[in-house]
Amino acid sequence: MSATASFEALTPTSFxxxxxxxxxxxxxxxxxxxxxxxxxxxxxxxxxGGALRNMGxxxxxRVAVLAPNTHVLLESHYGVPFAGAVLxxxxxxxxxxxxxxxxxxxxxxxxIYDYEFESVARDIAAQVGGGLRLVRAGRPDDSYEHLxxxxxxxxxxxxxxxxxxxxxxxxxxxxKPKGVMYHHRGAYLQALAMAMETRLDCDSTxxxxxxxxxxxxWCFPWGVTAAGAVHLCLRRFDAGRVxxxxxxxxxxxxxxxxxxxxxxxxxxxxxxxxxxxxVATGGAPPTPAILKRMAELGMDVTHLYGLTETFGPxxxxxxxxxxxxxxxxxxxxxKARQGVGNVISQxxxxxxxxxxDVPQDGMTLGEIALRGNxxxxxxxxxxxxxxxxxxxxxxxxxxxxxxxxxxxxEIKDRAKDIILSGGENIASIEVERALxxxxxxxxxxxxxxPDPKWGEVPVxxxxxxxxxxxxxxxxxxxxxxxxxxxxxxxxxxxGDLPKNATGKIQKFVLRDRAREMMKRELKQ
Length: 524
Description:
CATH architecture of the largest domain: 3-Layer(aba) Sandwich
Mean pLDDT: 93
CATH class of the largest domain: Alpha Beta
Structural class: alpha/beta
Strand content: 15-25%
CATH superfamily of the largest domain: ANL, N-terminal domain
Number of strands: 25
Helix content: 25-40%
Number of helices: 17
Low-confidence stretches: none
């Protein structure tokens, strides 16, 4: 549909076009020593669009970017679509082999990479072949800067708001990564929802603790710009440096998985802040213990829920004023729920295997199903997986939950994380919450371990706080005091927990460990 007096195709790049005018002289990006105003950011992104056009990248061509949270990756969220191309933001923690698969599968013609990934980029080019063009970035003398300085501004208008904006690849823990296709309309609306739900404005400073490549940074590369706020880039996450920024850089907002919150909450520099900081967390349900601790530090935590396939958080635990008068422990339990659809989401459902809605009783388990403007177009070049994920016009999340009487949903577990023990279903989340309530526990993850009698039993992996000395027997006894005995873990292993680039615990790694642990015990 072409533009008319009453219609303009929606695209998140329009936020920069506006902020470049409205907030022209205000700070847009702080990236260590490099700083850009909104006018300068707009100019750089338009020149990136011109550079890609001069390189011969056609409309709909793919441009891959391998970079940490720097101004380069932020600029790519605008410059690549300005050229009419499709952004493929790469997970910096993947191996060269995994990255090569993504670059080849997406059909990327150009790879813009940060200088830290020189050897990885060369490996990718060697494995992909076919004339993949490399552009090094991150320092003033790199080819990326030369391309921008030698190119004029260029902006291709978006003709179809349902057109392809970016391809985000899933983690691939159950096979090859799948390319999730984002459209301009969805990213535009989701970015506005995130700005509104987290209360961003032109006086906000957003600290980039969440990887921009993950669900396109939950759409905050566009949402922060829409608000005219400051992007404070963070090349790599370091809890001590984050605390320094919180105290000295005027940070008002940050995002991260609950494990990121854990690292901040129990860091030696942790202390109550003089001003409130809004924190959005998702990827796993935060425990009441960590929510209580963050509140003590002066951080206002909002719990969000979503997937790569839903442009990040489609669901928010919308807070009601009257809940603030409840005891802190009860507030934390409410805040740990996933909530209701965000302001641009459609109705949420929890359905049984036949696709029927379960009762709103807070007890009947079903699968969470979503639809609306913030649902993917589908999986790139994978119609079978797309039909499986969206069998009847509703996207099936694979998450099992309940619908409460107030319309708020609460996840009980991933379908694959439910532990089937002696005919009983055990939600790993429930066991994790019980363990994390112990004062010595920093974080915990629970998975199924094989058992000859019960089929499966809970096996826990626990990271303790510094100086803690609780034993396995003591922690098992503690769990048994706070839940049915059959739900308590049968084994507990202490140590650091494996995590992906977004801080999400990698339970597939722990399942392998649990199987090996239980096998060794059976042989003894």
